[in-house]
């Protein structure tokens, strides 16, 4: 046991020396860290005064009240041009249907063929009178009174028959008229097969084999059929 004591004391001495050096190193490191941290704080403070403080002073200076004569006003930001509000574009109205005389004539011929009736000849003189009656009804619609209907109930046709003008214009000995006011219809077939076919008198006129010539004319929403025989 005695021979190990010198070695034990020597080991303890070495341990004490190492711990002392470690403590000294720790103090040195702490001192160095404090020095570095103090230096960083000083540099940050200098940077604050050199850069940020002038920036704040510039902002404060720009917001100072401007004195002009006896008036005091704050500088206003540059105005931005107002954007115009979008204009609502009204929808384009649906144009009225255009139904030609040829469309009406062909629809009538198909209708008569389906009902086993004779073929009618297209007659221009009848068209002249039919167009006149269409224009009369268009003018009537422009000045229509609340107690009046769009159609004249064949009053104009009777007037021209009584005066003889109907027969002079058409060059026919016998003439019949179909009238229609159909703003909801858009095809010739609808006018012939839905409009006039729904009325007994009109249906009989457009299916009669007593007639040899015909012309149908119209301008939305009025349609006229003139049937004749020489």
Automatic annotation (TrEMBL):
Lineage of the organism: Bacteria, Candidatus Magasanikiibacteriota
UniProt-listed InterPro entries: CAP_sf (IPR035940)
Organism: Candidatus Magasanikbacteria bacterium GW2011_GWA2_42_32
Record's protein name: SCP domain-containing protein
Gene3D superfamilies: CAP (3.40.33.10)
């Amino acid at each position: 046991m005695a021979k190990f004591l010198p070695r034990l004391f020597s080991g303890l001495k070495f341990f004490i020396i190492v711990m002392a050096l470690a403590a000294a190193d720790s103090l040195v490191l702490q001192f160095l860290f404090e020095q570095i941290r103090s230096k960083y704080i000083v540099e940050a403070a200098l940077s604050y005064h050199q850069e940020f403080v002038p920036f704040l002073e510039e902002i404060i200076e720009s917001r100072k009240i401007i004195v002009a004569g006896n008036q005091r006003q704050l500088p206003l930001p540059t105005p931005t041009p107002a954007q115009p509000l979008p204009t609502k574009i009204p929808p384009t109205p649906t144009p009225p249907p255009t139904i030609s005389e040829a469309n009406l004539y062909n629809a009538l011929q198909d209708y008569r063929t389906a009902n086993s009736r004779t073929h009618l000849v297209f007659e221009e003189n009848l068209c002249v009178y039919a167009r006149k009656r269409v224009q009369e009804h268009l003018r009537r619609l422009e000045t229509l009174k609340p107690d009046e209907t769009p159609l004249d109930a064949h009053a104009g046709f009777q007037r021209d028959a009584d005066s003889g003008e109907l027969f002079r214009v058409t060059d026919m000995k016998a003439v019949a008229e179909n009238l229609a006011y159909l703003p909801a219809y858009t095809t010739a077939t609808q006018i012939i097969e839905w409009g006039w076919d729904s009325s007994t008198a009109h249906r009989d006129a457009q299916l009669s084999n007593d007639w040899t010539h015909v012309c149908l004319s119209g301008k939305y929403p009025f349609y006229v059929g003139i049937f004749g025989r020489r």
